[in-house]
Specification:
about 260 residues, alpha+beta, six-stranded mixed barrel, 6 helices
Length: about 260
């Protein structure tokens, strides 16, 4: 009895310490956190694509309100406080200009738009110069009409420097012109276009380079092969395939004969 009670007390103590640690990690002030910076050799956001997204408050939600917003050229949107903020927290209803969001999506591409940070400025109305709130955000989701591609709504998440965000980072494939397997006429099978990482908000990569310059027939690249900033945490299996050059390896062909 005493042994079981001691074991349960130790387990409770460990759980309490872990819980205290996790809560402390979430509640740290920005000055207590390490400063993350982009490193040489890794992609950085191009400042020429920086743009301030303008918005106005939206007092209520609902189908009728949303329909009126869209008819006025605005898209109903929500800004959530943090990861999983849709389950609570500091949620703000806003409306953004549909033309501005569509322009950004068309210019950057949807995957790149959803992995990029923007400054969001909230005004009383779009003709006003008084800013009610200015916050850094990352688009979390965008919904388009299935038939017309009209913008229906956008969801944003706040991205302060102390935030860690789950991001589907786009992949950019390079080296097709010198890949031995492609030179032999074998096709490249692209399995993933994005890979999910947990990223410090200050160093979210705009994309990840996938080097296939040495990839031969039958060879593949998996998620663990990708070169990323050491602070990024892969949220998928390291063995998850990214791409492959189709066809059997020469050694496998010799074995079969």
């Amino acid at each position: 009895m005493l042994i079981r009670r001691a074991a349960s007390l130790r387990a409770a103590t460990v759980h309490h310490r872990l819980r205290r640690f996790s809560i402390a990690a979430l509640c740290q002030e920005p000055e207590d956190l390490p400063e993350f910076r982009y490193l040489e050799g890794f992609p950085k956001p191009d400042p020429k694509y920086n743009e301030i997204i303008k918005a106005i408050p939206r007092p209520k939600s609902g189908k009728i309100i949303s329909a009126k917003e869209r008819a006025a050229g605005r898209a109903p949107s929500i800004v959530f406080e943090a990861e999983d903020g849709q389950h609570g927290g500091n949620k703000r209803l806003i409306s953004v200009q549909s033309n501005q969001i569509k322009k950004l999506v068309n210019h950057l591409g949807q995957h790149f738009f959803l992995s990029r940070l923007f400054d969001l400025e909230v005004y009383q109305d779009f003709g006003s110069e008084d800013i009610l709130e200015k916050v850094r955000v990352m688009p979390r989701s965008i919904h388009l009409h299935a038939g017309t591609d009209a913008l229906l709504n956008v969801t944003f998440i706040r991205a302060p420097s102390n935030a860690w965000l789950k991001v589907d980072v786009p992949l950019v494939f390079r080296g097709e012109d010198v890949s031995p397997g492609l030179k032999k006429g074998s096709p490249l099978l692209t399995i993933k276009r994005t890979v999910k990482y947990l990223c410090p908000a200050d160093i979210i990569p705009p994309y990840i380079d996938v080097d296939i310059s040495e990839l031969d027939v039958g060879q593949k690249i998996v998620a663990g092969d990708l070169k990323v900033h050491p602070a990024l945490r892969l949220l998928r299996s390291k063995d998850e395939p990214i791409c492959k050059i189709k066809g059997a390896r020469a050694s496998d062909q010799r074995k079969s004969t």
